[in-house]
Structures are given as structure tokens and as C-alpha cells.
Write a structure and sequence with these properties.
The structure is a homodimer. By secondary structure, chain A is α+β, with helices and mostly antiparallel strands. The first copy, chain A, folds into two domains: 1-114 and 183-261 and 567-715, Thrombin, subunit H (Beta Barrel); 271-542, no CATH class. Chain A is 45% helix and 15% strand. The longest helix of chain A is centred in the last third of the chain and has 44 residues, at 512-555. Chains A, B: One of its GO terms (molecular function) is serine-type aminopeptidase activity.
């Protein structure tokens, strides 16, 4: 596609964009049918009814029931913790995979592993906003928070239920989500790592892909049918619905749809927020993180021990730098800022002629002012946020002092993260410090961040910080040397002691770092207070922006889906090639030939011998593409996904399972802000590959039978 | 295409393979027409007649006449020396390009730049082999050499002619090539570097490509019409023929053909030579070169000065390692060894039943024995060859001692490279030493190579080397330290003095390195003598292998082209996409959209502003693809090419110029040994891009007129 033509397309609404709430599907029934869906969109409207009730939340990702006895299909990488938990030197399930031959062999998941089945999704906007009406700022925020917490508490009275209040369209609508939490989940079938994660980091975000990224679990309940911890006598859970695996595969152009729990998107943010993200936030974040990377790598030249301690943080910095840079490149390539600006300008022009302008426009203007006000200190806020996540002792001190502050309140009123139920997590963090800390490195990281801070204009700096660290790099360096030489926070027992200590003990402590942080804390609390007030007002005012946008889109003949927020969404589209660059076309289906091409015998391209042997035999009867004779592995679609959609079932026009979502392409890393139809693709395991593996390579005939899939064993 | 299916294809003869001698084209007329050629193949049979007489040799590459007044089209990278010669700080033609507005502005090339127009191509097999008949070994070699030299001397009596004897099918047929050598060549039109070499090393061997790799020169002769050195009064040369630029472009699947001077291929080498190349030579060479790379990089950690001196050698080592590794990967991917072995076995089985077997088979067996005999010392020979090319002082000493040895003979009988006409080149080499030499590094390079040598079995080692360097690394190291501390070869004046000195002075010299090399020289001369004897016998015997192969192919209904040897060849095929890997397809045409996509503003992706502006304007009328509206840049074909084909004209079915060959794809780096139709592609400038640049971006209306191309200027 020519560049100019593509630019035109990118500015046009695209039919395949959208992470729809199931309740919205009847209203877009016409376009859904036009795209090729053969079922009745009305049947998809209630996510607590079949078939969508088969789609479950697995940790932060997605899975789906695929048998009436509770089999769950999800990704290998989503269930990886379960596989790891059951692996040891004698029985390495990561390396060898796992096939359970009967139910007695199924292996219990780690005890904190959870499946959640959504049983209720009710609109509670009036209840949530009732007490907030008329309030502003922090008071509005607190009223919403209190009403939400009350609804959750009420809902969770029913045993085995996990509830939450979610908001759609940035505070416009609120829903109470009720989920049955299943605690006994067992491992049933997993391919070896070199199939489930073939290509690993090298192929991450890459198409063409050749992973068999799937795993099968089974949910169990107590003999009474209620959620229960693992027990030998538990029985398979009978889900309210399960999906049927298709007997046929897909081809380029076929209709597909997907249901899952996408985490977060920013598609309906304002033009100013788009500009901030592209013109400042992404480049500035990359710049700050690169500076930290440099510090760690520089130390690595001479100190092997420090290199090891910071290896994981360095890897994470690099991943984030790569990811943010990719997002920035993508948003620039899509010209996202200009397109969003043009769209918003058109909306505001249209709005000016509407009766609603009188009430909406002032609120929209106020949103813009609030965003601008937040941006006034964005450099400082970025540095403080990075300081709190990229340090060990400093973070420990900040956490301990904040905890002492929160403990003065009743537990229910404490800031989340500092309630009693959070203390185990905090203790874990305080323990990890030892393996990840070196005083020399931490001082240099802080010096790097705070030297930047010292250069900020007066309006962004904080008196408490200036007093503590001085105004020059020399003062800063002297303070850090002195404080880190004197603190006892480097001692694990001492940290854990302070975690349990009374607030008064911390207040009296003469530990150098605790005292320093004690002086900084008022500034941090003040900033947080300001932020919450702003967020309260945004929660109150953004719905006006969304009302205008929804009305404007309606006039354009388009429905609006809410930005993703980890609730169940449906997207639809088709099996689609990718023209990633000029003259470069990626076919939407990969084949086993590509496994052989990529195979080096060395991790991560070390396909297991049984797989290579089976490919050499070419026994694909019943699975291969009838036209080409090739055996499919993965496929590509233009489905609208984001993080959290891992493990989402991909369905064909009849609603049968044809694929399992597990990744997206590198060009789509900016899709959380903007869906560019040229580049947005999702990557799925072709279920023909899964079926073939379970039939011919690591056979599990009884499972195929339970899944209702015919095996194609050689005669 | 599935992997299994592709494997089958690769074992089948492929119609598009072949670098045909023009005289062969009438014999393959049927397949040429079937492929789409619309002309008369008989018209292409004589390379001294139109249209092939328009194809000229430009240095080691190719060009073609494109006007009756001597305009020559070739690559930017082929004419780069001419552009560089005319560039300086005030007038940077590399950076800015060059447009001559009338003939007076045309700029003379560097004085050693030559165009060669082939005017004769006569079979001289009988004359060359007459005196060799009945001889063997070195005598056979010398007889062929003497007869060839005599023919060349005779031929070059005509002023302005450059002659050579070339052999086809490894000694089966000999031809006398007569070429008119044009010495006054001028620069007429060159795009800026950032167009002519857009992407540079990053895109080298890469498709999709976006280079405008073309330059236009003009040949001049004296007022008498004869070749002459540059002079103001010279007049444009009127070539015997010139090519016409097509008014239409190409599309995927279109017939194309190409004429040029491919350098060297090994397609008809024996199965044993294929096995040697893949199983030993490429991996061993990469291993040795990597060891040298390690030595240089290791020193670089601590010695900045040495790093700079060896930067160019290191770059060259890396390039060679990459290239050889790519060739190895390609030959393995194509399963070249097994396929060639199977083919040769089939040929020998077929031959066994033929009457000719009685005479051919013994000779073929003798070829195999000679190859095996050469391989018996291949490890040693590789190390000695690398020692002579990858050192500075050692190479200087070897060259000076050999020169002294050769000077004892009449000039005509000296080894080529050591004749009087070679001494300027040698002096240049001896001068360069200073900038590329560090004694510490050279000693380590030699230690690395000679330690390997010391581990070779007795049968491969040489008494002279053992005596000079000892049998242990310690002795070796001691010798190198002593010799390099004592030699005066590090001094440039001294080296140049020895270059001019009488052989007797060198013989008496007590310079440590010259003396050492003096002791090694008898061994090196002995090895060379053995090699020439073997080569003489191979020259005598390989024709039997070729006779058998040609007869066997004839029975298969296939003609055989001779391996490339820098003589004019024609290949034909079509505009072809590349399926480089599973699910990855490269379209055969790139567009200006790709220039914008790749552009970073930083070299080598720094497209000039006039180009970017013209793309933004999108004024492509008369040039863009009618169907897509896209403006083509480069295109891809399956034409059979190798090094030397740079600048080759690419013609359409009517024989009109549609493209200019300038590179091949990375997957085709193994094509010098085997043409794999799945991967072998050639990369061409689309002449629509050239015409558009000359019309709209850096206009040269008078040139377009001379080229007979309509301009499409805006009204």
C-alpha cells in the first residue's frame, strides 16, 4: 500500500477497531454480521450467560472453559507458574512438558493461583455517584471510593466471591463485577518449553511466530460444588458454559472474534494527553531510564558482584526502554498526535452548534486545565516516581515511613497498599533487597536522578527535598555518602523489625535514612493530596468529554467502546496479513516448515526431537491446510487486543474455537493509544497445531475425547 | 511454499538458471521465447554486434551505452571513484550529486579509469592447446600460458586494444577477447550519496532496497575517433550500438533479461569440491579469521593507537567472516553438497553405459585424485595464504624476497605480480604498511596462525618453517620477538630502498626478517611449483568432466553454460517476489514510501530534502505504477548474476532498458556455487525512478532528451 494512501486510511474510522462491552454488541449487530459473524449478536450481550460465561480470568490474563468437566485452555506463559511449581530436578515439566493420562495424575497449581468466573455485571452508577454529587476534588474522589468499597464489601459477603467496582468512560458509568473465585486448579497438559515458548525473547513481539503457547488446566471445587482450596476429594467444576473447538481451521480473510480481559488502553484520552505522551512523556522516560542503565552498566565494567545483583533491574530497564521507544516510534509512524488533535478539533466544532455545548464545553475546558496543571510538575513527578521504583534502600525507607503514617488510621481508611492485608507483600519486598542492592550503585542511581531534580526550575522543586539534598551535586553527593554510611536499612533483620515496629519507634529512630525520608514525607504526602484532588475532579469532569465524544461519534454513525480496564471485552475482525514495511508482507499463517527453518538446536530455537521427527514424517492428515498441504502453527489477525488478552479464545464465524491469543506484533506496541489498521495485529496459536501435537506428538487421546475433538491416528 | 515442496523443487533443474554466452542463445531460443522474449535470439548471438555491443566493461563491473554520443549508464558505486576524484571541500559531489548542464561541464574521470568495448571474441582453442598436446603438469600449464601470451601480444599490436585469452568449461574451450579501451571518460550525472547509496552498509545485500544506485558517464575519443587520454578537444565516442530506455515499467512476473560481466562462479565444480567447500573450507576459513579478529579486538581493549591502525583490517575480517558464514548457511540451506553429489553420481552412472566412458572416466577419476591430493595439505595452505595477506611486515619481506628471486629472470618470464609494470603497486603496498602496522599486533597474529601450523601433522609441515619457528609455541614466540625487535622493515624508507635494490643486496642483507623469509622462500616456491603442476593437469583433465556433464545434460534436454569468468554473459528470468522464510514474502517492487519509512535523517538513511519534498508533493505523473499509484524505486528479479554484474542493463521482452542491476540479496550469497531458485534474486534500480529523479528532483532535461526519454514536467 502506498504511503499516501495509507495515511488517508489511518485518518479514517476503521471497522475492526474496538474492545466492545458484550452489552454493546446488539447495538453493532449490523456491522458484526456484515463482517461475517453467523450467530446472533444478542446472544453475546450478557457476559454471565453462555457462551461468554465460558471466558474466565486467569491471574491478569484470560482463559476459557473447553469441557463440561472444567478443562480450561490458556497460554503456556500464563500458566507458567503452575508448570514451574510442579517442576524439580527429577521431574522437569518446563523442559519436558506434561501429559496427564487420567484425572488422578493432574497436578495442583501453586496455592495462590486463581481462576475467576464472572457471575454478575451490574450497573451501579447511581449508587457510586449518589454521595459524590455536588462535591469536587478530593471529596468527590473519596465519595466514589467509599461508595465503591461499600458495594464490594456487601458483594463479598457471599463466600467464594471476589468483587470490584469498575468505571467505564472515565467515570461516566460504574459497574459492580462479581466473580466466583476457583482456588483448586490443576495442570492437565503442557507442551515442553521449546514448543510452548519456542523463540522466547528473540521472537517476543515477532511475527512470523512459531510457538505452541498453550496449556490445559482443570478447575476443581469441593464436593459441595463450592470453591475450595486444593483437596484430594475435590471434584471437577462444571462451568456454566464451555466453548467447542472447531473441526476446521482458518484461512486468510476469515472472520474471527475474541473475548478476554484487556488491561488498559488510552484511546479516548484528550489530544493534549496524546501530545504529552508523544512529545514529552515517552522521550523523557526513555531518557531517564537510559541514564540509570548507563549507571548500572558502568559499574558492571569493574564490579562483577554488583553486576549480578543488578542484572534483573538492568534487564527490566532495557525492556522498558525498548518498549517505550517502540511505542514512541509507533505513535509517530501513525501520526497519532495530529490525528487525535484533528479529531478532537472536529468534535469541539460540532459540539459548539449543539444545545449540550453550554453544559459540556466548560467542563471539557476544565479537563484541559486540570491536565495542564498536572503537566506543570511532570518532570519532577517522573523523577520521584522513578526514585521510588528503581531503588532498594530508599524505597524500603519510604515504605516503612509511609506505613507508620498510615497505621495511625483505622485499617479500612488506610491507603491501599498499606492495609494489613498488604503486609506480607511488603515483607517480601523488604527481604528481596539483599539480593538486589549495592550501596555504591544505589547512591549513583540516586545521584543521577536527584542531579536532574536539582536542575528543575523553582516552581517544580520541593523545599523539603532542597533542604535534605542541598542545591548542588556536591551537597547531594555528600548527603548520600553520609546517610548510606550510617543507615542500618541494609540489614534484613533490621528492616523486618521496623516493619513490625510501632509508629512511635520509627518516629524516634535516629537511623540516617529513615530520618532523611521522614523529612521528605510531608512533601510526598502533599503532592499525593494534590494529585488525588486533581484525579477526583477529572473523574467528575471527564464524563463530559466522553459524552461529547459519544454524541459526536453517533452523528458519524459509529459506536464508542470504553477504554480497556480489565473487564470482559469482545473484538472482531479477520485473519489478516501484515504489510509491515514497503514491499514486506507477512502471511497470516505460519507452518511447521518455519519451525525447522528457525531451529538451531540451541535455546530458544531448540525444537524437541519428537516434534522435529513428526515434522520430518509429515503425518498431518486431518490437520494440514487442504490447499497447500502445509501444517499450520500460528496465525495473525487484526483483532483489537492489549496486555491482559493473553489466553483469549479466538472464535470463528460460528463461535467455535479456532485459536488462542498469545501476543501481538512489535508494530502494534503503540496500540494502547491508537489503533492503526495498517499495523495492529494479534498473534494466535492455530488450534490445529495444538490438536496435532495432542494427537501425533505428545498424544493425549482421552483429553481429545473430552474436548470433543476427533483424533486422526494413523490407520 | 511448504518446506517439503521446496526441497523437491530445489532438486529439479530450473529454467531460469544460467549465465549464457551470447553464442549459446540461438540454441536455447525455444526456452527464451517460452519465457517471454519477443525478439529474435539469433540477434543476440554475436556480442560484437548490436544490441550486445552496447554492453561495456567498466573496471571490474558493467555498463551500457545509452546514447549515440557515448552516454554510459552504470552504478553509482561502480563510478564512485570518478565522483570522489572530482569532489573536494568546496564542491562535494559525493554529498550533493552532480548534474552537467552541457558537455563543457562534464568532468574528467581519474586517469586510470577505463571503459572497454568488446570488438572481438574468437575461438582459439586449437592455437592455445596446439603446443600443450601430449604434455602434462607444469609443462602443460606453461604451454597454455605461453600460447596465450603470444596471442595477446599479437592482438595488442593494434593501438588502443586490450586483449586476453579466456577459457570456458575449465580448459575445454579458449577464446581471444579483444576490447577497445576508452581512456577519456567523463562524469555527466550522479545523484547525491544519500540517494545513490541510500542505506549503505546497513542495506547492503538487503531486500527491500531503496537506492538510486546509478550514474551517467560519457566516453570520449580523440578527434581522429581513436582512444585517447583526456584532452579538452576530444569528442564524444560514437558507440557501435546503444540501448533504448523503455517508456513503460515492469510488473511482477514480467520477462526480463540482463547482460554483463559476471566474475567467477563454481557451479560446475565436482561433488568433492562442493563437499570440501561446505564441510571444510568455509568453516575452517571462518575459524581462522575469527581467531585473527579476536587478536585485534583483544588488543583494542587497551591500545587505542593499535585499534585505529587495525580498524580497516578488522572491518575487512568481519565482512569476510559474515560473507563466508552467509555462503555456508546458504549452501547448507540449499543442501548443495547432497544435491551435487546425487547429480554427479547420476552423471557417472549414465556415462558408464556410453562409448565415451572408456576415455572420459579415467580422466575424471584422475581429476578426483588431483583434487584429493591438493586437499591433503589444505590446512597448511590456508594458514600460509592467510599469513601472506593478513600481515604487513611479514608480507613486505615475502614480497621483497620474491621480487629479488623473480628479477633473476627476463621480465616476460617473471611471475605475474612481479613484473616491472607491477612495481608501482608494490611500492604503494610498502608505503601503506606504516598506517596499518603495530609490531605487538602483528606478532600476535603470526603467533595465532603459526601455533595452528605447529599442530599440523608431519605430512603437512615444511622443514624450512619448522627450522625457522621451532616446534613449540615458546620457540615460536621467542623467534618472533627476536626477529621483530631486530628488523628494519618497520622503516618506510628502508622498505622502499629494498624495493629498488639489486637482488644481491637483499641476499647479503642481515636484516632479521629478510633473512628469516629468505630461509622460508624455498619451501614457498616448492609448494607453488607443486600447485602449478596440479593446476596444469587439472586444466588438461577437467575438460573430460565437462564433456561428460555437457553430454549428460544434453540427454536431459538441457544446455550447459560455462562458469562465469568475467566475459559477457546473458541471463533471463522474470520480476519475482522472494519468499525468504516461512510466512515472509518480499514484493518485487519497492516504492518511494519505503524511503520515507526508512528515513532517520542520519546517515545512511538521510534522504536529501529535495527528494523528501518531491515525495511529499507526490508529483509522479508519467512514472507511477498505473494500478497502485505508487512510485517505484527498485525491483527484484530471479536473474542469474554474481559479482561483476554491477551496472548490468536489465531489459524487457522487447530489449528495452527497464532496470540497472546493482546488488543481490543476502540469501543468494551462496549462488556462486549453486543457483537455488527459492532464494536467488538480483536487485535492480527501476529506471522509472532514475527518470523521475532526472525530471522532477534534480532536473537534467537536455540529458533526458539525449536519452530519448519524454519528460513529464508539470504543465
Amino acid at each position: 500500500m502506498g504511503w499516501v494512501m495509507a495515511m488517508v486510511l489511518a485518518t479514517t474510522a476503521h471497522a475492526d477497531e474496538g474492545m466492545w462491552m458484550p452489552s454493546q454488541l446488539p447495538s453493532i449487530a449490523r456491522q458484526l454480521r456484515a463482517a461475517g459473524f453467523q450467530g446472533n449478536p444478542a446472544d453475546l450481550a450478557d457476559l454471565t450467560q453462555a457462551p461468554l460465561s465460558a471466558v474466565v480470568k486467569v491471574g491478569g490474563a484470560t482463559g476459557s472453559f473447553v469441557s463440561s468437566d472444567g478443562l480450561v485452555l490458556t497460554n503456556h506463559h500464563v500458566a507458567f507458574g503452575v508448570i514451574q511449581y510442579n517442576s524439580n530436578a527429577q521431574r522437569d515439566l518446563i523442559q519436558n512438558g506434561f501429559v496427564s493420562h487420567d484425572r488422578a495424575e493432574e497436578l495442583p497449581a501453586n496455592p495462590d493461583f486463581r481462576l475467576r468466573v464472572t457471575t454478575g455485571f451490574d450497573k451501579v452508577t447511581d449508587k457510586v455517584l449518589g454521595a459524590a454529587k455536588g462535591k469536587t476534588g478530593r471529596a468527590y474522589y473519596d465519595a466514589v471510593d467509599a461508595a465503591s468499597k461499600a458495594l464490594v464489601t456487601e458483594c463479598e459477603r457471599e463466600p467464594g466471591m471476589r468483587c470490584s467496582v469498575v468505571n467505564m468512560f472515565y467515570g461516566r458509568d460504574f459497574y459492580l463485577v462479581k466473580q466466583l473465585e476457583l482456588r483448586d486448579v490443576r495442570l492437565v497438559y503442557a507442551p515442553p518449553r521449546a514448543i510452548g515458548n519456542y523463540g522466547d525473547e528473540v521472537d517476543n513481539f515477532v511475527w512470523p511466530r512459531h510457538s505452541g503457547d498453550f496449556t490445559i488446566l482443570r478447575a476443581y471445587v469441593g464436593p459441595d460444588g463450592k470453591p475450595a482450596d486444593y483437596a484430594k476429594d475435590n471434584v471437577p467444576y462444571h462451568p456454566p458454559a464451555h466453548l467447542q473447538i472447531a473441526s476446521q481451521g482458518v484461512r486468510e480473510g476469515d472472520f474471527v472474534m475474541l473475548a478476554g480481559y484487556p488491561g488498559v488502553t488510552y484511546r479516548h484520552r484528550t489530544a493534549a494527553e496524546f501530545a504529552d505522551q508523544v512529545q514529552w512523556r515517552l522521550p523523557a522516560t526513555v531518557d531517564v531510564l537510559r541514564q540509570l542503565q548507563d549507571v548500572i552498566e558502568e559499574v558492571g565494567h569493574t564490579d562483577r558482584q554488583a553486576t549480578i545483583r543488578y542484572a534483573s533491574q538492568l534487564q527490566s530497564l532495557k525492556n522498558n526502554i525498548k518498549r517505550f521507544s517502540g511505542e514512541l516510534d509507533g505513535l509517530k509512524r501513525s501520526d497519532a498526535v495530529a490525528i487525535r488533535r484533528k479529531d478532537e478539533d472536529a468534535m469541539l466544532s460540532w459540539l459548539a452548534a449543539q444545545p449540550s455545548a453550554a453544559t459540556l464545553r466548560p467542563q471539557i475546558d476544565e479537563v484541559a486545565q486540570l491536565i495542564a496543571a498536572g503537566n506543570a510538575t511532570r518532570e519532577r513527578d517522573l523523577l520521584l516516581a522513578v526514585m521510588q521504583t528503581q531503588t532498594q534502600l530508599m524505597r524500603s525507607a519510604l515504605t516503612l515511613q509511609r506505613l507508620a503514617h498510615e497505621r495511625a488510621k483505622p485499617d479500612a481508611q488506610r491507603e491501599s497498599g498499606y492495609q494489613q492485608r498488604d503486609e506480607d507483600l511488603t515483607a517480601g519486598m523488604l527481604r528481596q533487597v539483599q539480593r538486589r542492592y549495592d550501596p555504591k550503585v544505589e547512591k549513583q542511581l540516586l545521584a543521577s536522578l536527584l542531579t536532574r531534580y536539582q536542575k528543575l526550575p523553582d516552581a517544580q522543586r520541593l523545599p523539603e527535598f532542597d533542604a535534605a539534598f542541598g542545591r548542588s551535586p556536591a551537597e547531594l553527593s555528600g548527603t548520600l555518602d553520609k546517610v548510606y554510611a550510617a543507615t542500618q536499612l541494609g540489614d534484613e533483620a533490621q528492616r523486618l523489625h521496623w516493619l513490625k515496629a510501632e509508629p512511635a519507634e520509627l518516629a524516634k529512630s535516629n537511623d540516617a535514612l529513615l530520618m532523611l525520608v521522614g523529612k521528605l514525607q510531608p512533601a510526598l504526602l502533599r503532592i499525593e493530596e494534590e494529585r488525588k484532588a486533581r484525579e477526583g475532579d477529572l473523574l467528575r469532569l471527564r464524563p463530559a468529554y466522553m459524552d461529547a465524544l459519544i454524541a459526536y461519534r453517533e452523528k458519524q454513525g459509529r459506536a464508542v467502546y470504553p477504554d480497556a480496564n480489565s473487564t470482559l471485552r469482545v473484538s472482531y475482525g479477520k485473519v489478516t496479513p501484515l504489510e509491515a514495511r514497503d514491499a514486506v508482507v507477512y502471511h497470516p499463517l505460519t507452518t511447521t516448515a518455519g519451525i525447522v527453518e528457525k531451529n538451531t538446536g540451541v535455546e530458544p530455537f531448540d525444537a524437541p526431537k519428537p516434534l522435529l521427527d513428526a515434522i520430518a514424517r509429515g503425518d498431518y492428515a486431518g490437520y494440514a491446510d487442504a490447499r497447500t498441504g502445509a501444517m499450520p502453527v500460528d496465525f495473525l489477525s487484526n483483532l483489537d487486543t492489549t496486555g491482559g488478552n493473553s489466553g483469549s479464545p479466538v472464535l470463528n464465524a460460528k463461535g467455535e474455537l479456532v485459536g488462542l491469543n498469545f501476543d501481538s506484533n512489535w508494530e502494534a506496541v503503540s496500540a494502547s493509544w491508537m489503533f492503526d489498521p495498517r499495523y495492529k495485529r494479534a498473534i494466535h496459536v492455530d488450534l490445529r497445531y495444538m490438536r496435532w501435537l495432542m494427537d501425533k506428538v505428545y498424544p493425549a487421546p482421552q483429553l481429545l475425547k473430552e474436548l470433543g475433538i476427533p483424533a486422526h491416528a494413523a490407520p
